[in-house]
Amino acid sequence: MAERVIIHVDMDAFYAAIEQRDRPELRGRPVIVGGTPEGRGVVSTASYEAREFGVHSAMPAAQAVRLCPQGVFLPVDFRKYRAASERMMAILARRASRIEQMSVDEAFLDVSEKVSGFPETEKIAKAIKREIREELKLTASVGVGPNKFLAKLASDQGKPDGLVVILPEEAEGFLAPLPVSRLWGVGPKTAKRLQEAGLKTIADVAAAPIEELRRLLGAWGQVAYELSRGKDDRSVEPAGEAKSVSAEETFPSDLHHVGNMRRVLAELSAGVARRLRSQGARARTIGIKVRFGDFRTITRQTTLSGPADRAEALRRTACELLDGVDRGDQGIRLLGVRASGLEHGLGQLSLFDERAQRRGQLEKTLAYIRRRFGPEAVRWAREASRQRR
Ligand SMILES: [Mg+2]
Known about the structure:
By secondary structure, the protein is α+β, with helices and mostly antiparallel strands. Among the domains are: 173-236 and 352-388, 5' to 3' exonuclease, C-terminal subdomain (DNA polymerase, domain 1); 244-344, DNA polymerase, Y-family, little finger domain (Dna Ligase, domain 1, 2-Layer Sandwich). The chain is built from 15 helices and twelve strands. Strands 5-6-1-7-8 form a five-stranded mixed β-sheet. Strand 5 (98-103) and strand 6 form a beta hairpin. The longest helix has 21 residues, at 258-278. Bound molecules: magnesium ion. Residues 10-11, 14, 105-106 line the site of magnesium ion.
């Protein structure tokens, strides 16, 4: 396999940094996004000032309040963060053709075919940092390495506002002193199992016989063995593009008036159009779904003269389709709008709901594990992933 060069970009305290950017009075103060000052909810992001108090993401807000009573608690403003995310991903798209978005503020770039080696990649990494700083007024940490595992470790190492390059020949030396918990897929429970067996650092894992790792970790032992030597052949996989976008609504009591049905179709169309645009997609085909009071369900669809991504075009088409449905005197229990035949704009990245994206990421990882190590390893990995959450 030819030498690969991978870049990992990860924004620093993303949500909190956006709030501090937009509200200068919050700069230098412990900002905690997600959760309320009364201690309800969960911390989504803590600014670096708040982290000094031990506050971190996924922590119950009640605990964050106890650790940092002077913290500024802010609600999550997804629209704002999503807009920043889209601009960040657009910057990355200028620099690499193969991009795998891992979450709202994190992505891998495979630049192997664009660069002649690591020095040139470092220049790209610097340019990405500069563009993010200038265009978004935010900082990112960037890691460069011969694979995803090392690139991500590199960006972590430099946080915040870092740039760390791990050359292939430096990999083992870089990994050696790190705790086993830094291995991909090793959660707290597994880390403990390794530590109890006397394997505390990655160097210990690298020196352990493969049979012992298999005994401790099952099929995952093989992965740990390779990772500890800096080997990771996972490829950077751009997200699959959605084939359709749809929304539907079931009503508490059946609808009888066409005006109400039209109003619902308008709302559903607006939601579908918004999601189309966030994915940089336009639809050639619009469909509706109608479920009657007796649960009989029909669908109708039509192809537009040109692709659309605007609520008004979707709404008009959906209402025309509804007009063509013989409703008799039946009430309607559910209405849906579906956009398909999608055309994706060039260089546009799909940006799904963050949760869905995480879930997709986990499924992708599990599929990889199943391919390489069989179903037993999948069970193991699911357990490891649960421990992490
Ligand atoms: Mg981040």
